Give the backbone structure.
Amino acid sequence: MSPSGAEFIRQIKSQIAEVDPADVHGWLNGAGNGNGGVTVVDVRESDEIAQGHLPGAKLVPRGYLESRIEGAVPDRSQHVVLYCASGNRSALAAKTLADLGYEHVESMTGGITLWKDRGYKVEVPRKLTSEQRERYSRHMLVPEIGPEGQQKLLDAKVLLLGAGGLGSPTALYLAAAGVGTIGIVDDDVVDLSNLQRQVIHTTDRIGVPKVDSAEITMKALNPDVDVVKYQTRIDASNIMEIIEGYDVIVDGVDNFPTRYLLNDASVRLKIPVVSASILGFDGQLSVFAPYDGPCYRCLYPVPPPAELAPSCGANGVLGVLPGTMGLLQATEVVKLIVGAGEPLIGRLLLYEALGATFTELKVRRDPECAICSRPPEEISEEEMGVFPDYEAFCAAAG
Amino acid sequence: MATVRIPPVLRPSTGGEKEVQAAGENVGDVLHSLADAHPDTQTQLFADGGELNRYVNVYLNDEDVRVLDGLATPVGGTDVIVILPAMAGG
């Protein structure tokens, strides 16, 4: 006579090893088990897992156990603890793993129900809404981003210095990519002469503060984005307050004093800066990651004199060029946030649009750098943004 | 003859050329050849004492000459010297 379902489970449980949640809790919290650590596998269905799971558990629904366990636990000698809601499905799964040759498999008695009754912690996975899954579906399909990377983007805080030529394309694409918080610093208003390149603004918004204009476009593109506006000119008195708490800063400012000030403050706070500059048909791009690579002052210890540092306002710029350079910046920002690829740290990329050439140069940390050769706490507020001949430079620059 | 890449801000001093050929055994010689041929570049490249201005970065191929032998770094005929000032446009 065939056994009942309950009898079958009892028979299986007699053939496998079970473990109490207290032991699993101990192992997960650092108590050694002499087996080089334990891998915990949740065998419930995805809608149950979405309500919460054991910290660090691998998620392999029982229906996919045979096909997916080798991906989750490739080593058959690994100590594996399985659990489900109450300990029945995990017992059946433990038998399956034993049959597959796993040597040290246990089923957690009472499942996550008993685990919770004991007051142990569970992790509730963050979930994208169905609209977000649709909006970011092309990111989901890229292995380097996927749902985890998209969640990182949604959690990220990026500060754009300038909503002008470089800031416009960067803001558009970072908003589209779902960067959750985007701060914008700019004290200017939209001018007709901006619209040849500053594509985030529109003709009917001439005279509108750039931060407001940028917000309108970004929110229309992606309402997920929280736009934080700073309609001010960044200076020594406000920089620390504004940049603190951001994960990445995008430097698209149009003057040297602010670039040096930003460098010094970002080194002090250890915030990476994705930096670009443009003039005419030429662009430069690099990522300055404090203490991981060189800083802006390692590359340029002092700025050039004013006559060798013309602005785009004085000398002009190809309208497309800030688009090219700004999108390279946006790309580096996304890479930094999701942790993909090789960021442009310690490298300077030059783009020359007329010849359509890219040139890469090495940038080394300067062991005698006035700023990043010292610990961050030694960089005083008084010296931030200061360089030799600062007064003369600013006077000449007008 | 080495190839010297001229940045936008120096091009008015080289007749608009983006690249020029200049002779020399080392980086300093090549840059002095450049300054001889295009005198307006002299004060932009060199300080009064003859050393490179601090705000001018010079690369031999992809390496900053500051981490090589500076102006004494030897130069071959196929080498490319990049003159790179900071730019602040945004």
